[in-house]
TrEMBL record, chain A:
Pfam families in alphabetical order: Sdh_cyt (PF01127)
Stored InterPro entries: Cytochrome_b-558, SQR/QFR_C/D, SuccDH_FuR_B_TM-su
Annotated source species: Marinactinospora thermotolerans DSM 45154
Name the record gives this protein: Succinate dehydrogenase subunit C
Domain of life: Bacteria
GO molecular function: metal ion binding
Transmembrane intervals: 18-40, 74-98, 119-140, 166-184, 205-233
Record keywords: Heme, Iron, Membrane, Metal-binding, Transmembrane, Transmembrane helix
Gene3D superfamilies reported in the protein's UniProt record: Fumarate reductase/succinate dehydrogenase, transmembrane subunit (1.20.1300.10)
GO cellular component, one term: membrane
Cell location: Membrane
Automatic annotation (TrEMBL), chain B:
SUPFAM superfamilies, alphabetized: 2Fe-2S ferredoxin-like, alpha-helical ferredoxin
NCBIfam families in alphabetical order: dhsB, PRK07570.1
InterPro entries referenced in this protein's UniProt entry, alphabetically: 2Fe-2S_ferredoxin-like_sf, 2Fe-2S_ferredoxin-type, 2Fe2S_fd_BS, 4Fe4S_Fe-S-bd, 4Fe4S_Fe_S_CS, Beta-grasp_dom_sf, Helical_ferredxn, SDH/FRD_Iron-Sulfur
Cofactor binding note: Binds 1 [3Fe-4S] cluster.
Iron-sulfur listed as a keyword: yes
Cofactors required: [3Fe-4S] cluster; [4Fe-4S] cluster; [2Fe-2S] cluster
PROSITE patterns (alphabetical): 2FE2S_FER_1 (PS00197), 2FE2S_FER_2 (PS51085), 4FE4S_FER_1 (PS00198), 4FE4S_FER_2 (PS51379)
Name of the featured protein: Succinate dehydrogenase iron-sulfur subunit
From TrEMBL, chain C:
Reactions accelerated catalytically: a quinone + succinate = fumarate + a quinol
Keyword tags: Cell membrane, Electron transport, FAD, Flavoprotein, Membrane, Oxidoreductase, Transport
Enzyme class of the recorded protein, top EC level: oxidoreductase
Fumarate reductase/succinate dehydrogenase flavoprotein-like C-terminal domain residues: 511-645
Source organism phylogeny: Bacteria, Bacillati, Actinomycetota, Actinomycetes, Streptosporangiales
UniProt-annotated catalytic positions: 339
Enzyme Commission code(s) on record: 1.3.5.1
Protein name per its UniProtKB record: succinate dehydrogenase
Biased composition (Basic and acidic residues): 9-20
SUPFAM superfamilies: FAD/NAD(P)-binding domain (SSF51905), Succinate dehydrogenase/fumarate reductase flavoprotein C-terminal domain (SSF46977), Succinate dehydrogenase/fumarate reductase flavoprotein, catalytic domain (SSF56425)
FAD-dependent oxidoreductase 2 FAD-binding domain span: 45-450
Length: 234, 248, 646
C-alpha cells in the first residue's frame, strides 16, 4: 500500500464510527468528572446558607487574580459546553448512521427480541435527549434563574430551597437524576470498552464500578433536594 | 408436532416482500430447523409453488452460510447456528416467524437469502497477514505464549455468519471486524501490519454502511461461536493506538 | 462383464522424472519451464473452487502475477467444504523426535492407500507437507500450542507417530481461513477476480486444450462464458452421490463430471471412504450426516447387544449380554482398527439385526468405562465439545446413555486422473485437491486430505502449471468461438429441459433414492450381483428423472431446485460409472470390500497380480460403454503387503 493511501486511510479513520465513539467516551468522561465535583458541591448545602453561598462565590473567583473574575468558571463552562456539544454531535451522528444501516423497508417485521441488552443500554439515546433538555432547564433554573419556581433570589442557597419545596420541581429533578443514573450505568462501562480497557477478565470489576459510580452520583444529587422537600434544610 | 410458519417471501433484490403463512405438519422433534424447511419446500414444490430460498451448506455449524432470524432472535432460541437448531426447541402449535438478516449492508437477494459480500470486502481491506507462499520461516521459529495463542484462537473461530449484524440495533458489523483484528493482532506474525490493518478494516466497515457500535452487546449474545465482546474493545484500542502513534 | 465397458490402451504418467525418489520433485521443478514475471500478467488461469486446494492455488498464482479468476458456488470463498474438517493435518516435521520422517509419512500413506497410489506423487506430498505448516503459521493459523509456546501434535487414525497438527476440533476451518485471507489479499491487489455464487456447468475445450468454462450466475441466472489460458478444477469430492454423507449439501461432481464428458479420464471412481463414527440417521427427513471425531474411539468402547432385536435400554443390558465386537474380532487393535474395518464390522452386526436405534442402524459407543476409569471431568475435558455436539443433534446425554454411531460416506479417493504435474488428460486442465484421484490410493489416512489440498495448491501446482503456461498466451477467444457457443448452448438447453419436464417428483426424492441404491450396493461391501442390480436401477431411475422431475421457477432468478437438479443429473451418470468401476475391480482393497474377494476368516483380500493399477475411465456417451485405461502401478520403495489387524 502506497503511503499516500495510508495517510488518506488514517485521516478517514479519524472520522470513523470508532473515533466518534471515542470522542463520546472522552467527553462523557469529562462530564462525569464534572458531575462528581458538582455533586460534592451540592452536598455543601448541609453546611447552611453561608457555606453554600460562599462555595458558589468561591467558584467564581478561582484563579484570581491570575485570571479575570469568573475566568476559571468560564474556562470550565467552555470545556463543558464543548464536551456536551461534541458528545451530542457524535451521539446524533451515530444514531443517524444506525438508522441508515437498517433503513425503513428493511426493518424486522417481528419485534427483535432483546437477548441480553440491558434497559440502560437501550435507553442511552432517548435518555441522553432527556438529559440535554434537563441540562438546559437546570441552567435556566439554578444558574441564570430565568425560571424561578418558588421565587427568584440572588442567593443560590435560596434558589435551591425555594425551588425544591415544590413537588413538580422535585419530580422533574428526580426523573432527570434517574435518567443520569441509567445513562452512566451503561455509559461508564461503555467508555471503558470504547477506550480499549475492557477485557473478559475485567468485565465484572468494570460493571460493578460503573454501577457504583452511577449510584453514588444519582443518590448524591438527590439528597439535597429531598432534604429541602422534607424540611431538613430550610 | 404441527407448526405454523410465517416466512418472509421476497422475489428478488429490491422487490417488495411480505410475510406469508404456511402450515407444516408432522414435524419431528429430531429434525433440524432447516430440515423442517426442507419438508415445507418439498410440499411447496409438489404444489407447484416456489420453494423458500435460504442459504446453507455444511449443516454442521461451521461454514457460516445459514442464518435467519427466528421469532426476533438471530439463529433462534439456542445459542447456535440455524442449522444446528432442532425442532425440540419448539412445541406443538407454535407460530414461528422467520426473517432474513436485515441490514443495508446485507441486501436481501431472495426470501431468506442475503448478500454478505461486505464481510469479504472487510477482509480484503486488511484482514490477513501478508505471507507470500514459500517465504515462511520454520513454524517453530516464533514460539507463541499459549495464552495469546488461545485468545487468537477464540477470536479466529468466527464463521462469518452475520448474526451479529442481524441482532445489533445499530446493524453494526463491529464484532465480525473485531474478531479478525483480535485474531491477527494477538500473534507475533500479525504485528507488522497491525496498525494499518485495523485502520483499513474499520474504514471499510464504515464504508459498507454498517452502523457504528455502541456497546449494546446483542452481537456477542447471539454469536454462535461465542466471540467475546472484549474483542471490540481490543479493536478500539488498536485503532486509537494506531491513530495516536502515527505509525502508519 | 465386458458388455459394460471396453478396455482401451494403457496410460502412464509421463511427467514424474526417473531416479531416486527423493530427487524427483527437485528434478521436475528444475525441468519445468518458467514464465518470465512480465509475461505472467498476460496469462490467465481459471480456478474452480475455493477450498484448501483452490484458495491456496488462487492466492499463490495471483501473487506470482498471473491473472486469476476464481469461482465458488457459495456466497463467500470462506465457506468451501474444507471448512468442516475437524481432526487435523499431517506433516513430517518430526517435532516430537519420535522417529517420524518424510520417508515414514510417505511409507504410511502408500501402505494406508493399500498400494493403489503412485509412489512419486505420495513422496512429494510427504516432502512438501513440512512447508505447509510453516506457510500456515506465517499466515496466522492458530494451531494448538503447548505451554512452552511451541506447536502441539497428536497421533491420529492409529498412526504410531505424532505428526498431526490441529486447531482444536476446527483444523479445516482455520486452514481455510488462512488460505481465504491470502486469497482476499490478492483480490484486493487486483490479481484475482472472485466470482462467488457462480456454478461451473461446462468446460470449454478448443483445439484440444481447456480454454474456459461456462458458469451460471446463481443470482441472476445469466449463463456466462469465461476464457483463460488454463483451467484448474479444485471442486472437491463427490460423496453426495450417496445423498447422505458428511459432505456439505452443495458438494457435487458437476465440475469434474463435465470435464470428464469433455475428455478428461475419471480414475478409480468407486474408491470412497466410509467413516465409522458418525451420528446415525434419525428419520426420512434426514438431510446430512454429522461426523464425530475418530478420537472418540481412543476411550469409548463399541458394542451391540448379543441378541438380535434386543430393545432394552442399553444401561439395562448386562455386561455378558453385550458384544464388544471389535475387541472380540481384532484383539490387538480393538476399537482402534482402521476406518474401513470399523465401518464394515458395524454394518455386519447391523445386518445381523443387532443394530440399535431407529431402523436398527447404529451401534453403541460407550463411555461408561472411561468415565469410571478417568472420572467425568477428565472425559469432559477431552471430549466435552463432541459430547455437546452429539447432545445438540440427538437430544440425548452421552454422559449417561451410550452414544449411537454409524458409518457414513466421508471422502472420495477417486477423481479426475492427473499426471505428476496434476494435469488431466485434457491439456491445460489441471485438477487439485479431493477432485483429483492422486495421492490416497484406495484408502485415505486421517489428516491427509488437508495436507494434500494445501500441498497441491500452495506448492505443487504453482510449480508445474508454468510448464504448460510457458507456451501461452494462446489464441484470443470470444463468445462466438464455435466451441464456446456450443458449450453455452448445451448448458442452456439442459436448464430449459430441466425446467420444462414439470413432472411429479422433487429433485430430492430422486437424489434420496439414488443415494439408497449407492449405499446399499456400492457402499461398504459390494457384490457382483448387487452392483449389476444397482446399474440397472440407476439407469431406470435416471430415465424417470428426465421424464418426471419437477423443478419450479425459472432460470432468471436464484433457483435452488434448479441448482440441485443439475447436480443430481450428473450424479446419476457418475453413479453408473462408480458401479461399473466397482464391478470390474474384483478385489477387496482399501476402504472397499468386495464380498467375492475375502480370506477364509472374512478379511479383505487384495489381488495385486490383477489389479495393481489405476482404473482411468473415458467417457463415450451417457449409458454407453466407457473405455477403461489402466495405469500400471509399480512399487520400487514400499513392498506390497496384505494388511492385517488381527
Ligand atoms: C466432516 C469432514 C471432516 C473432515 N476432516 C478431515 C480431517 O480432519 N483431516 C483431513 O485431512 N481431511 C478431512 N476431511 C477431508 C477434507 O476436508 C477434504 O477432502 C478437503 O477439504 C477437500 O478440499 P478441496 O479444496 O479439494 O475441496 P472443497 O473444500 O470441497 O472445495 C470445493 C470448492 O469447489 C467449489 N465448487 C464445487 N463445485 C463447483 C462448481 N460446479 N462450480 C463452482 N464451484 C464449485 C465449492 O464452492 C468449493 O469452493 C474431512 C471431510 C469432512 C466431510
Ligand atoms: C446532551 C445530552 C446527552 C446525550 C444526547 C447523550 C447521549 C449519549 C449516547 C447516545 C451515548 C452512547 C450510548 C452507548 O454507548 O450505547 C452516550 C454515552 C455516554 N454518555 Fe451521554 N449523552 C448526553 C449527556 C451526557 C452527560 C451530561 C453525561 C455525563 C454525565 C454523559 C455521559 C456519557 C458517557 C460516559 C457515555 C459513554 C461513552 C461511551 O460509550 O464510550 N452523557 N451518551
Ligand atoms: S462474530 Fe459471531 S455472529 Fe458475527 S459473524 Fe462471526 S460468528 Fe457470526
Ligand atoms: S449450514 Fe454451515 S453453519 Fe449452518
Amino acid at each position: 500500500m502506497a503511503n499516500s493511501t495510508l495517510t488518506k486511510q488514517r485521516s478517514t479513520a479519524f472520522k470513523s464510527t470508532v473515533a466518534l465513539k471515542s470522542a463520546m467516551a472522552v467527553t462523557g468522561g469529562i462530564l462525569v468528572l464534572f458531575l462528581i465535583v458538582h455533586m460534592y458541591g451540592n452536598l455543601m448545602i448541609f453546611g447552611g446558607q453561608e457555606v453554600f453561598d460562599e462555595y458558589s462565590h468561591h467558584i467564581r473567583v478561582i484563579g484570581e487574580p491570575m485570571l479575570p473574575p469568573e475566568g476559571a468558571l468560564w474556562i470550565i463552562r467552555i470545556v463543558l459546553l464543548a464536551s456536551v456539544l461534541i458528545h451530542a454531535y457524535a451521539a446524533f451522528t451515530l444514531w443517524a448512521r444506525a438508522r441508515r444501516a437498517r433503513p425503513a423497508g428493511q426493518r424486522y417485521q417481528t419485534r427483535r427480541k432483546p437477548v441480553q441488552q440491558t434497559y440502560a443500554s437501550r435507553t442511552m439515546r432517548w435518555g441522553g435527549v432527556i438529559l440535554a433538555l434537563f441540562v438546559i432547564y437546570h441552567i435556566l433554573h439554578l444558574t441564570t434563574n430565568n425560571i424561578a419556581p418558588g421565587g427568584a433570589s440572588d442567593s443560590p442557597y435560596e434558589r435551591v430551597v425555594n425551588g425544591f419545596q415544590i413537588w413538580w420541581v422535585l419530580l422533574t429533578y428526580l426523573i432527570a437524576m434517574i435518567a443520569v443514573g441509567f445513562h452512566l450505568r451503561h455509559g461508564i462501562w461503555s467508555a471503558t470498552q470504547t477506550l480499549g480497557a475492557n477485557k473478559a477478565s475485567r468485565q465484572r470489576v468494570l460493571n460493578i464500578t460503573a454501577t457504583a459510580i452511577a449510584l453514588v452520583i444519582t443518590v448524591g444529587f438527590l439528597i439535597p433536594p429531598f432534604s429541602v422537600f422534607f424540611g431538613l434544610v430550610s | 408436532m404441527n407448526i405454523t410458519l410465517r416466512v418472509w417471501r421476497q422475489k428478488g433484490r429490491g422487490d417488495e416482500g411480505r410475510m406469508v403463512t404456511y402450515k407444516v405438519e408432522d414435524v419431528s422433534q429430531d429434525m433440524s430447523f432447516l430440515e423442517m424447511l426442507d419438508v415445507l419446500n418439498e410440499k411447496l414444490t409438489l404444489a407447484g409453488e416456489d420453494p423458500v430460498a435460504f442459504d446453507h451448506d455444511c449443516r454442521e455449524g461451521i461454514c457460516g452460510a445459514c442464518g435467519v432470524v427466528i421469532n426476533g432472535v438471530a439463529h433462534g432460541p439456542e445459542t447456535t447456528t440455524t442449522c444446528q437448531l432442532h425442532m425440540r426447541s419448539f412445541k406443538d402449535g407454535d407460530v414461528i416467524d422467520v426473517e432474513p438478516w436485515r441490514a443495508k449492508a446485507f441486501p436481501v437477494i431472495k426470501d431468506l437469502v442475503v448478500d454478505r459480500g461486505a464481510f469479504d470486502r472487510i477482509i480484503q481491506a486488511g484482514g490477513y497477514i501478508s505471507a507470500p507462499t514459500g517465504t515462511a520461516p520454520d513454524a517453530h521459529a516464533n514460539p507463541i505464549p499459549k495464552a495469546d495463542a488461545d485468545r487468537a484462537f477464540d477470536a479466529a473461530t468466527c464463521i462469518g455468519c452475520g448474526a451479529c449484524v442481524a441482532a445489533c440495533p445499530n446493524a453494526s458489523g463491529m464484532l465480525f471486524t473485531a474478531a479478525k483484528v483480535t485474531h491477527l493482532g494477538m500473534l507475533p506474525q500479525g504485528q507488522p501490519e497491525r496498525a494499518a490493518r485495523v485502520v483499513k478494516m474499520v474504514n471499510q466497515h464504515d464504508e459498507e454502511d454498517f452502523g457504528g457500535c455502541t456497546n449494546i452487546g446483542e452481537c456477542a449474545a447471539v454469536c454462535p461461536k461465542g466471540i467475546p465482546l472484549d474483542t471490540i474493545s481490543q479493536l478500539n484500542k488498536d485503532l486509537l493506538g494506531a491513530l495516536a502513534s502515527g505509525k502508519l | 462383464m465386458t458388455e459394460l465397458y471396453i478396455e482401451g490402451d494403457p496410460i502412464r504418467d509421463e511427467k514424474a522424472p526417473e531416479g531416486p525418489i527423493e530427487q524427483r520433485w527437485d528434478k521436475r521443478r528444475f525441468s519445468a519451464k518458467l514464465v518470465n514475471p512480465a509475461n505472467r500478467r498476460k496469462l490467465s488461469v481459471i480456478i474452480v473452487g475455493t477450498g484448501l486446494a483452490g484458495a491456496s492455488a488462487a492466492a499463490t498464482l495471483g501473487e506470482a502475477g498471473y491473472q486469476v479468476s476464481s469461482f465458488c458456488y457459495q456466497d463467500s470463498p470462506r465457506r468451501a467444504h474444507s471448512i468442516a474438517a475437524q481432526g487435523g493435518i499431517n506433516a513430517a516435521k518430526n517435532y516430537r523426535n519420535d522417529g517420524d520422517s518424510i520417508y515414514r509419512l510417505f511409507y504410511d500413506t502408500v501402505k494406508g492407500g493399500d498400494f493403489r497410489s503412485r509412489e512419486s506423487n505420495v513422496y512429494r506430498l510427504a516432502q512438501v507437507s513440512v512447508e505447509i505448516i510453516d506457510q500456515c503459521v506465517a499466515q496466522g493459523v492458530p494451531f494448538a500450542r503447548e505451554y512452552g509456546g511451541l506447536l502441539d501434535n497428536r497421533s491420529f487414525g492409529g498412526v504410531q507417530v505424532s505428526r498431526t497438527f490441529y486447531a482444536r476440533g476446527q483444523t479445516g476451518q482455520q486452514l481455510l481461513i488462512g488460505a481465504y485471507q491470502a486469497l482476499e489479499r490478492q483480490v484486493a491487489a487486483g490479481t484475482v477476480k472472485m466470482h462467488t455464487r457462480h456454478e461451473m456447468l461446462e468446460l470449454i475445450v478448443v483445439d484440444g486444450r481447456a480454454r474456459g468454462i461456462i458458469a451460471r450466475d446463481m443470482v441472476t441466472g445469466e449463463i456466462e462464458t469465461h476464457f483463460a489460458d488454463a483451467v484448474v478444477l479444485a471442486s472437491g469430492g463427490y460423496g453426495n452421490v450417496f445423498f447422505l454423507s458428511t459432505n456439505a449439501m452443495g458438494c457435487n461432481v458437476t465440475a469434474t463430471w463435465r470435464a470428464h464428458r469433455k475428455g478428461a479420464l475419471f480414475a478409480n471412481p468407486c474408491f470412497t471412504q466410509i467413516h465409522p463414527t458418525c451420528i446415525p440417521v434419525s428419520g426420512d427427513y434426514q438431510s446430512k450426516l454429522t461426523l464425530m471425531s475418530e478420537s472418540l474411539r481412543n476411550d469409548g468402547r463399541i458394542w451391540v447387544p448379543k441378541k438380535a432385536g434386543d430393545q432394552r435400554d442399553p444401561r439395562q443390558i448386562p455386561e455378558d449380554e453385550r458384544d464388544y465386537y471389535l475387541e472380540r474380532i481384532y484383539p490387538s487393535f480393538g476399537n482402534l482398527v482402521p476406518r474401513d474395518i470399523a465401518s464394515r464390522a458395524a454394518k455386519n452386526v447391523c445386518d445381523e439385526g443387532r443394530g440399535v436405534g431407529p431402523g436398527g442402524l447404529g451401534v453403541y459407543l460407550d463411555f461408561a468405562d472411561a468415565i469410571k476409569r478417568m472420572g467425568r471431568p477428565a472425559v469432559e475435558a477431552k471430549y466435552g465439545n463432541l459430547f455437546d455436539m452429539y447432545q445438540r443433534i440427538t437430544g440425548e446425554n452421552p454422559y449417561e446413555v451410550p452414544m449411537r454411531i454409524y458409518p457414513a460416506v466421508h471422502y472420495t479417493m477417486g477423481g479426475l486422473w492427473v499426471d505428476y504435474d496434476l494435469q488431466s488428460t485434457i491439456p491445460g486442465l489441471f485438477v487439485t485437491g479431493e477432485a483429483n484421484f492422486s495421492d490416497h490410493g484406495a484408502n485415505r489416512l486421517g489428516a491427509s486430505a488437508l495436507m494434500q489440498g494445501l500441498a497441491d495448491g500452495y506448492f505443487v501446482l504453482p510449480n508445474t502449471i508454468n510448464d504448460y503456461l510457458a507456451s501461452g498466451p494462446f489464441e484470443k477467444l470470444d463468445e462466438n468461438t464455435p466451441e464456446a457457443k456450443e458449450a453455452a448452448e448445451s448448458v442452456r438447453a439442459r436448464i430449459n429441459k430441466l425446467l420444462s419436464i414439470d413432472g411429479n417428483r422433487t429433485v430430492d426424492s430422486f437424489h434420496r433414492e439414488l443415494g439408497h441404491i449407492m449405499w446399499e450396493y456400492c457402499g461398504m461391501e459390494r457384490t457382483e450381483e448387487g452392483l449389476r442390480k444397482a446399474i440397472e436401477r440407476i439407469r431406470e431411475l435416471r430415465d424417470e428423472f428426465w421424464q418426471n422431475v419437477k423443478v419450479v421457477g425459472t432460470n432468471d432468478e436464484l433457483n435452488q431446485s434448479l441448482e440441485k437438479a443439475g447436480r443430481v443429473a450428473d450424479f446419476f451418470e457418475l453413479a453408473e460409472l462408480m458401479c461399473i468401476d466397482a464391478l470390474h475391480r474384483r478385489e477387496s482393497c482399501g476402504g472397499h470390500f468386495r464380498a467375492e474377494s475375502q480370506t477364509e476368516d472374512g478379511e479383505a483380500l487384495r489381488h495385486d497380480d490383477e489389479f495393481a493399477y489405476v482404473a482411468a475411465w473415458e467417457f463415450t456417451g451417457t449409458g454407453e460403454q466407457p473405455v477403461l485405461h489402466k495405469e500400471n502401478l509399480e512399487y520400487e520403495y514400499v513392498e506390497m503387503k496384505q494388511r492385517s489387524y488381527k
